[in-house]
Amino acid sequence: MAEPEGSIGAKTVVRGTLKGTGAVKVSGQLEGRVEIDDAFEVNSEAQVDAEVHAKSVRLEGCCRGSVHAQRLILGAGGFMAGEAVVEEFQVEEGARWGGRLRMKLDLPSGVESA
Amino acid sequence: MSKTFIGPSLTVEGDVEGEDELVIAGTVRGARVQGKEVLVEKGGQVEASVEADSLRVSGRVQGNANARARVELAAEGQMEGDVRAPRVVLADGARFKGHIETGIE
Question: At a CB cut-off of 8 Å and minimum separation 6, what does B92 contact?
């Protein structure tokens, strides 16, 4: 990740809506809602309880709530509980997942979605 | 010391609280902003009460400020609210509306 537009330090709590353009990295706590058009990264000690809308999301820490992104990467230390609505999903070994995954995809003809 | 940075294109509608160095170049609109050293950079806007060890404002602050050590309003800074800190600096050219209380011995 290039130098982010925003970063939340390990000893900081943000409660509310964070929005804008540019990448954001969280090492502290964030509660509420995130609306950014770039990468959103949750570091290993971080805790996010939020509805997250971003272009891409990488979780090395804990996220509860929902993720809406083109791409979600759940890193080895990542924990996600909630719902993810994504186009691409990647899970690394060691990650923990508890929730629901919905992928936006075009089904082959003749296949009905569940 | 870890750092929190709100870039120019970011807005927080809510509170930012903690013990980090807090640099605001974007916008924070809420009830409370708290950090160890709080810097409101040129172009940065805060609409909230601010609590810090020290506060330096080169942007705009609307809200009361309470600092344990120092508040500095730089020449390009603008502030509306009451300031309470043992040391207060208003640079030549700074805009300020409110009360200042340093306390007396």
Answer: B75
Q: To the nearest whole angstrom, how far is the Cα of B61 from the nearest Cα of chain A?
A: 18
Query: For each of chain A's 114 residues, which pLDDT tens digit applies?
Result: 567 899 999 999 999 999 999 999 999 999 999 999 999 999 999 999 999 999 999 999 999 999 999 999 999 999 999 999 999 999 999 999 998 999 987 778 777 766
User: A30 and A14 in contact (C-beta within 8 Å)?
Assistant: yes
Interchain proximity A18–B30, CB inside 8 Å:
no
CB contact under 8 Å between A13 and B35, yes or no, is no
Q: Do A24 and B15 touch (CB under 8 A)?
A: no
Q: Rounded to whole angstroms, how far apart are CA atoms A79 and A101? A: 14
Among A41, A34, A50, residue whose Cα is nearest residue A82? A50
Say whether A27 and B2 touch across the interface (CB within 8 A): yes
In this structure, what token pair is assigned to residue A17?
């809506």
Count Cβ atoms within 10 A of the Cβ of residue A45 and give its class: 0-12 exposed, 13-18 middle, 19 or more buried.
middle
State the SS3 of B8-56: CCEEEEEEEEECCEEEECCEEEEEEEECCEEEECCCCEEEEEEEEEEEE
Residues of A in contact with B2 (CB under 8 A): 9-12, 27-28
Q: Do residues B47 and B64 make contact, with C-beta atoms less than 8 angstroms apart?
A: no
Answer yes or no: pTM beyond 0.90: yes
B45/A contact by beta carbon, under 8 A: no
User: Chain A: nearest CA to B4, how far in angstroms?
Assistant: 5
